[in-house]
Amino acid sequence: MIYLYFLVVSVAIALALAYVAIRYTIVETERSREFKVKVKARLSRFVGMYRISILLFSKPFTYVIIATLVLAVTIAGFSSSAESSYVELKDPTLTSKTREIYVKFNKPVTADICSRIKQSIGSFNECLRFYRITLETPYKLLSINKNIYCLISSDKRFLSSLLNVDFHEDVYAYADLNTATMRDTLIYDNHRTQINLVYVDPAKLSATYITYKVPLIPIQAFIGTEPVTIPTRYVLITTTENLMKLFETHEELVTDVLIRGVESDQLNVLDFYEGLSADYDIFEVRLIEYGRVVIVSNTKIPSLKSVVVALITSATASLITLSVFSSAIPYVRDLRDKISYLGFPPWAISIVLTSYTATSMFFPGVITLIYVYLIYGGTAAFNSLLTLVVVWLASTIYVNLKARPESLASESYIPPTTRYTVIIKCEDISRLVDAIVHLIKSNEFFDVEEVEYKIDSNKEAVIHAKMLYVDSWGSGVDLTVFINVEEGFAHININTSVFGVEEISESMSLSINSLVISKIVGGVKVWESTY
Amino acid sequence: MGIYVLTLVKKLIARSVGAKTCLAVAVNLALLLLVSNSLFIAFLTLALISVASLASVFIDFKLHASTIYVLYMCGSKPKDIRLLLLLISFVNSTLLSIPYVIFLDAYSPIAFLIALTTFFTSLNHIYIRIRSSASIPQI
């Protein structure tokens, strides 16, 4: 019965949802149609811009640009060189007169490393070997049910003095114990071994260093410049002999070496690093001596020469590409004007040019960059990337600046006014005509060549005058004034036509018009007030 | 044209942007060869010289085209026009191959020949196009 109930409810909900979906679709159909039209219109604009960039792409200068960029990126990549990271620190707290060398390996090496180092640096007092390994599959302490993720082993005497623990046979130092000592079973890779655990203070363990800023517990990560080590509860420490016994092996493996009491005072750390790295996979080498520390690591950084080559190549390529673009600028400006007439917005040309430079420069450049990376490695790719970015940015900025549309805000052209209408109170048209004729004749800026007028039925009149401008030879104005008097008001229409024997400048034409019109308009207004 | 060829070459070189570009590219190439004198780099820069020559012709396309057109319409002989083009190519190629003369002397003839060939072929191509498309006024 309950199943039937759920079935009915489910079907009802499904039908309700279907009904809502259908209603929604019907309502939204009109909107979606409108949306489609809008999207299509906008899309057509982008398609247009894309086609224009393809048009640019098909021009022959594009191939010169591509060839330049590919060559420049390859040159920059090939001429790159990297050097090992070399850091020298001054530290006045280092007051020991003895000299130490610390070597950290990426992969464990055999114990004969000490004799190999002796060949390089000459005699020394002591060679301490460490085996510090982070486990992927944790070991387990059975009784106390603890996981171990890190194993550390070294010389018995050194560890005893460092941690104040007496390392007998099968003794392991461990920080997460409630008792001073206890016996437990260590489980690893289906092996079970009885070991003796000895408590070691976690704070002391964390603060124990092999040498200058190298903690005994391996560094897991860095927060800023501060190293973060593996938590002490996961770390088990013992002597090399105990560890060899645990693994049932006679071969000692070493991950770190500390050479104490180096006698050579002319030691070149970089040469030592490079000599040793020919045979071993080294992470870093440290030389610690009075007042200073030198650290050489396997982190490769581009050399100064390499960066200089990349910059010169960038300059050469930029020079060639910018020269080619400068020759193409008239064509690009013409294209800009044409697409502007087609109704494209002013920023369309910027998008066209940016997409053009991206297509013609960035894509071939990136393909070459990938090739350089695969063939010559990361440092070469860095050089190539530097060149690519410099050339591409320089070209894109240059082309966009040169082809930028002019500012839309400009001084608008104001044509000289050739018509003016003024309405004044007037009953007698003949007196008005006399006044205007007087104004024309008394204009001090013009020599009146001729004045004629005609009055029709005391309602309409026309005055025509030809006036020569006194300040300029051969230029003047042809003036026509129409007057229409109705119901006590006179409509005065003033028309002017400036002429000149030679071409008249815009400013002079404007001046002549203004002088004629203002004299009549001002005169009739004064006449009205005194009428 | 005779002696006027040299005057024309002088004026064209002085007015052209391509020659200045060649000089700037040559300075950059000299720096590049000074810093890195690997054999592969030398080969790549030879290719770059070819591209730079082509770019120089592109830059001065209008100048060269109008000069050739005017000379052609004035009735200059083809060998005179080609001599003019050869001299322009010679000057620009010399500019481009200077870095090789200084730093990689063995490669300087190759660099010069590459630049000269590219320049002259491109300019001659412009001349051929003008000759085939220009209409000669009938007297």
TrEMBL record, chain A:
Q: Where are the transmembrane segments?
A: 6-27, 48-78, 307-332, 344-374, 380-401
Superkingdom of this protein's organism: Archaea
* Swiss-Prot/TrEMBL keywords: Membrane, Transmembrane, Transmembrane helix
Q: Does the keyword Transmembrane helix apply?
A: yes
Q: What is this protein called?
A: Uncharacterized protein
Protein species of origin: Zestosphaera tikiterensis
UniProtKB/TrEMBL annotation, chain B:
This protein's UniProt keywords: Membrane, Transmembrane, Transmembrane helix
TM stretches of this protein: 12-34, 40-61, 81-103, 109-128
Q: What is this protein called?
A: Uncharacterized protein
Has UniProt tagged this entry with the keyword Transmembrane? yes
